[in-house]
Amino acid sequence: MSKPKILILGAGYGGLMTTVRLTKELSNEDADITLVNKHNYHYESTWLHEVSAGTIHHDKARVLIKNVINTNRVNFVQDSVREIKKDEKKVILKNGELTYDYLVIALGFESATFGIKGLDEYAFAMRSINTARRIREHIDYQFANYNNDKNATPEQLAIVVGGGGFSGIELLGELVNRVPQLCREYDIDPTLVKITNVEGAPSILPGFDPELVTYAKNYLESKGVQFKLNTFIKEVTPGSVKMQTKGSEELEEIKAGTIIWTGGVKANSIVENSGFETNRSKVPVKGDLRAPDDDSVFVVGDCALIMNEESGRPYPPTAQIALQEANVIARNIKHVLKNEPTETFVYKSKGTVASLGHSDAIGVVFGDKKLKGKAAATMKKVIDDRSLFLQGGVGLLLKKGKFKPF
Ligand code: FAD
Ligand code: NAD
């Protein structure tokens, strides 16, 4: 009898961790495991703000997949998923197709643009190593160009970050470190460079601890960031952002050479386009992390929607929850193969820590312990290093770990 075929789509936190755990849960005789990913490397999505600002090299944030998985046990296919034909248990790739008995959808996030005019065309988004690298190179170019183009204006040095959630704030934290370096490198007066954050809510990091939010805002303001709160981006044109403050009829415009959108994320649109039942673009998975309409399909990470029964809202999409889900999916696939009852996923939050550049941060950990400054920055590095350890053991930690002192 042929072995059951397990197919994992995407090698981000959810997909890579599911693969690594499956090779531990199952023996070679239990199943054939195939992992498909667009690139031959896995990247740390949680470090994309650093790659985008240029405060770390992009190679620091990625690792060859073959160096993390057991290639004797896992067939790795580098290809792009185009469509999942669930009725035929088949996945269409750019260069072929694969069939499965059990599928794990781990295709991650896309930027949510809410139909805002011009965002897709004229704003950058941090979605992958390549999009982050493009942001860094674009900012570098604006600075390199400034003193060499007689028509250049300070507006070309201006940076607007749209959205003051965790991605936007972490990016600003990196930018306030990087911009002074760029000014020194290209002989530019730092007072010419305007960095603006536009956030629709009355405060940055809506819903997060107010004391820590104030700390983050004061810190970034002290480094020159200007905040426009209660203000929604309505349109982006080449080199300008049009926005509206609550209560005002007028559209205000900021001209900027670099516009980066961090206003939200959604699940990879392949999921919706493949006909799965979705809610807010994600699959509202059952307790054991299977799709509600297909028992052979598991969904992990940013493609899955899990409700927090306490708050009545979905858990936010994070690497933390993706890694925990992956463990349960690997065990549940084993249970299904062995005709055992599956486990119900229970999320155990370890807290939230957001960096404000290399040596500052804010966070709430161990339930209600608040951290800020260097203590929080140390905790953030510990979290990043722990995630590397979980994915690739000591080898990956030693290669890519964040050990540099402040
Ligand atoms: P991803 O990590 O996005 O992985 C998806 C994988 O699928 C990628 O390898 C991608 O290349 C591949 N893929 C996509 N499309 C295709 C295709 N068509 N064919 C083949 N392969 C494909 N969360 C935290 O918990 N802590 C943090 O500190 C944190 N910081 C963040 C900072 C930033 C700047 C951002 C943007 C997010 C951050 N997050 C953080 C959120 C976290 O990164 C995501 O929740 C997490 O990456 C989701 O994991 P995933 O496995 O679902 O998807
Ligand atoms: P988000 O949805 O958390 O934040 C988007 C922000 O943009 C919100 O504050 C929203 O009010 C604002 N916004 C939306 N539309 C707008 C508009 N038209 N104009 C102005 N502002 C607008 O998205 P994110 O920050 O990209 O985070 C995505 C996920 O990744 C979240 O779950 C987050 O928790 C997670 N994340 C976690 C960390 C961390 O733990 N350190 C870091 C980054 C991201």
TrEMBL record:
Main enzyme class: oxidoreductase
SUPFAM superfamilies, alphabetized: FAD/NAD(P)-binding domain
Cofactor: FAD
Family according to the record: Belongs to the NADH dehydrogenase family.
The name this protein goes by in its record: NAD(P)/FAD-dependent oxidoreductase
Alphabetical keyword list: FAD, Flavoprotein, Oxidoreductase
EC number(s) per entry: 1.6.5.-
FAD/NAD(P)-binding domain span: 5-326
Molecular function, one GO term: oxidoreductase activity
Pfam families per record: Pyr_redox_2
Family annotation (Gene3D superfamilies): 3.50.50.100
